[in-house]
Amino acid sequence: MSRTVNCVVLKSESEGLDEPPHSGELGRRIFDNVSKEGWRQWLERLQMIINENQLNTGDASAIAHIEEHMRGFFFDEGELGGTP
Questions:
Q1: Distance between CA 10 and CA 45 in Å, rounded?
Q2: Strand-pair partners of 7
Q3: What is the residue-level pLDDT of the chain in tens, covering all 84 positions?
Q4: What pLDDT is recorded for position 76?
Q5: Residue 79: which H helix or E strand, with range?
Q6: Does residue 37 contact residue 82 with C-beta atoms inside 8 Å?
Q7: What is the predicted pLDDT for the residue at 82?
Q8: What is the reported pTM?
Q9: Which pLDDT belongs to residue 78?
Q10: Which residues are CB-neighbours of 19 under 8 A, at least 6 positions away?
């Protein structure tokens, strides 16, 4: 039986992720509050963010920038997240 979460992206009860998709406290928050479909929608957005900002995901500053977008996309925190 799969676990369900009240997804902050879909605003409904949906199938949860199998494991935290990111490290640390942010990964745990996402695991607890984002569904598989919500995560899929994030991955589409992430592709746009990486391409439009020409980010190198091996660079720590790029990861920090992506995490800012994650907090905005999932939790409406900060200035980023609504648009890449």
A1: 15
A2: 12
A3: 689 999 999 999 999 999 999 999 999 999 999 999 999 999 999 999 999 999 999 999 999 999 999 999 999 998 887 654
A4: 93
A5: none
A6: no
A7: 65
A8: 0.91
A9: 84
A10: 31
Q: Which two tokens stand for residue 63?
A: 């990861």
Residue 24 is classified by DSSP as H
In the block, residue with structure tokens 């091996």 = 58
* Residue with token string 């996309």: 73
The partner residues of 4 in beta bridges, in order of sequence, read 15
**Dihedral over Cα of 14, 18, 23, 25: its sign:** positive
> Which residues, listed in sequence order, are joined to residue 51 by a DSSP beta bridge?
none
Residue with tokens 């919500």: 38
The Cα 2–Cα 55 span in angstroms is 34
Contact 66, 46 (CB under 8 A): yes
Alpha-carbon separation of residue 18 from 3, 31, 76, 81 (angstroms): 8, 8, 23, 24
Give, in order, the Cα–Cα distances in Å from 74 to each of 18, 59, 62, 67: 18, 22, 18, 10
